[in-house]
Amino acid sequence: MKRILVFFTLMFGAFLCSFAQEKDVKITSPPISDQTQTCIDCHESINPGIVHDWRTSRHSYITPETALQKPSLERRISSDLITENLRSVTVGCYECHSLNASSHQDNFEHFDYNINVIVSPYDCKICHFIKVEQYSNSKKAHALDILQKNPMFHNLVDNITSVKEVKGNKIYQHEASETIKGETCYSCHGTTLKVQGTKIVANDFEAIEVPNLMGWPNQGVGRINPDGSLGACTACHPRHSFSIEIARKPYTCSQCHLQPDVPAWEVYKESKHGNIFLSKQHKWNWENVPWKAGIDLAAPTCATCHNSLLSTNDGEILVNRTHDFGERLWVRIFGVIYSHPQSKNAKTYLIKNKNDLPFPTTFVAELASDYLIDKTEQMRRQNEMKQVCQSCHSTDWVNGHFAQLDNTIIETDKMVLAATQLLQKAWDQKLANPQSPFDEAIEKKWIAQWLFYANSVRYGSAMGGPDYASFKNGWWELTKNLQEMQEIIELRIDSRIK
After folding, report:
1. Per residue in 457-495, is it b (16+ CB within 10 Å) or e — as a string?
2. pTM score of the predicted model
3. What pLDDT digit, counting tens, does each position of 118-174 carry?
4. Is 473 among the domain residues?
5. Domain residue limits at 141
6. Are residues 211 and 254 in the same domain?
């Protein structure tokens, strides 16, 4: 008996030693630079959440050198710009916040280091060259410019966000403060980050002098950064974990893509895909690269259809990764004013229709074809999206779905045209002023027709959310809104006669 006890004691001890060694191996991480360690020593007390998020990130336990050795399909890094001093250390505080210092207006001296407040896409580009190049050519990157450089959109935003007051029988409009703008349209589209001198920031530990940033905080997708770059990678990959799991889940997209104008999140939740996601997501593999359809996930999320690298179980590529989120899209269902083929150039504010207005169509739905992709390119993109669908659905199911969507787009455009014709009638009879097309009651109903209701029907059709194609901001509202526009015209004509 004694020998048996001794034997098991020795075996248990060997197991503990082996476990300890294995554990040591697991917790041994690549070297952290001296500069980053200095940052951690301070900020672990001041901002423990930031440091903890970073410790959970892939950046904290892999070096660029190791990442570059991964097989090409698994590789998440894509650059020859990585300098030797960055290759063999983890991607830490200093490695991100010290890059391209001469280009950063927000660079400042911080405890003997030159630090940038903002980590911009140009900084991420050092390791993620292809992704940043793709994103920089996307509509998302130009989202702020699209609002500001298209005079019609700029007028619409000003009308929505302006502060109103009543004097006598009239409503007067005042330009909104930068705070209101930053928390409305510009929260998603982005702000311009400008440095205006410095300021003192104090906490329980110390007071330091930092750049005074206007338009900050903001993580809008078209943000213009102090180094001139466009966008914020952290809009989808939140700092400081930069999680691919978070970016792949639809909750991230739901920050901006929600009703009434872009009801993608609400439609997704209602759809069969959303039902499966909400029921089964805890069993999915959110980290795998490439993402294997049917193995790692059982239903698509936003990222699956719009930008992820997808493969079969044996590694055959279904679609390549892209950070231009419009690259697989053939039609713009978020119509302005009507649906239309995707634009050739992400700078959609350059578009001019035949009436010299900055819209992809005329008021009677004629396309500004010179600025839009042609039929061949539309079919190529649609076929690529079908590849995603056919990883789980039969060819006949997929073709039927896309045929339904095509018909829905045609019919909703007809409903928008009917509303536009009513608005034109109101303008012609001087019942509304076309010089400012977004401020009167009938004009706001016209905007709702294409910005809210037609879009809801199209999103409902595209993503399988039937209630959004019928009652919830769908056909019910399209028809009701049209009737109310007609009644406004009749009432004003009647009042004029009397």
Report:
1. bbbbbbbbbeebbeebbbbebbeebbeebeebbeebeee
2. 0.88
3. 999 999 999 999 999 999 999 999 999 999 998 888 888 888 787 777 887 777 777
4. yes
5. 34-147+184-235
6. no
